[in-house]
Design brief:
Elements lengths: L13 H10 L3 E4 L6 H8 L5 H12 L3 H7 L3 E7 L6 H8 L3 E2 L4 E8 L1 E6 L5 E6 L3 E5 L5 E5 L5 E7 L8 E2 L12
Antiparallel strand pairs: 1-7, 2-9, 3-10, 4-7, 4-9, 5-6, 5-8
């Protein structure tokens, strides 16, 4: 299986970062994207309307049926963030605060890039850069945070067993802003 995107945690080699993230219960895989030309053109657009989002979900969601069945995910949608997204700065400020969820947080990145930070029991943060083809399943209760890279653009399928369980529960852990690398 191909290796997920390179880490941004300079203190650990990639194999050690993968082990640290896996030890936290995070399922981090590379599921290569090979979209048809029409779908690839949609993914290149910065913004999508609701119909275009539904087209992407329908086209790519079928490739995630195995995880939906294995973990009881009943619905999925496509989140699209780009520099012109209304309220983007406020949303990123919330995402960047360390938090947990009562349900798994599942993301399959289909365009753009971001950074996930995962906290271990000793309070160390392990940062992972994600990009197209990266699949992350962050288990319920795992402390983490997220931000975009300097390109400020990402599209990701989100899978849910219960959308109410995805509400962030902030941990109040002090943490500076994540380093935004390209």
């Amino acid at each position: 299986m191909p290796t997920p995107s390179a880490s941004t945690d300079d203190s650990l080699p990639e194999c050690a970062l993968r082990a640290a993230v896996t030890a936290l219960g995070v399922d981090w895989q590379q599921r290569p994207l090979q979209p048809e030309p029409g779908l690839a053109a949609l993914l290149e657009q910065p913004a999508l309307n609701e119909g275009e989002k539904a087209t992407v979900v329908q086209a790519l969601g079928a490739g995630l049926i195995d995880v939906c069945l294995a973990h009881g995910y009943h619905s999925m949608d496509l989140v699209v963030l780009h520099p012109d997204t209304p309220g983007l700065q406020e949303a990123l400020a919330r995402f960047d605060l360390p938090h947990t969820h009562a349900d798994d947080e599942v993301r399959y990145i289909v365009d753009g890039a971001g950074l996930f930070g995962f906290f271990d029991a000793q309070g160390r943060e392990h940062s992972v850069r994600v990009g197209p083809g990266d699949y992350l399943r962050v288990p319920a209760g795992a402390e983490h945070r997220f931000t975009l890279t300097s390109a400020r653009r990402i599209k990701a399928l989100r899978l849910f067993s219960n959308t109410a369980g995805w509400v962030a529960q902030y941990t109040q852990r002090p943490a500076g802003p994540m380093e935004i690398l390209e």
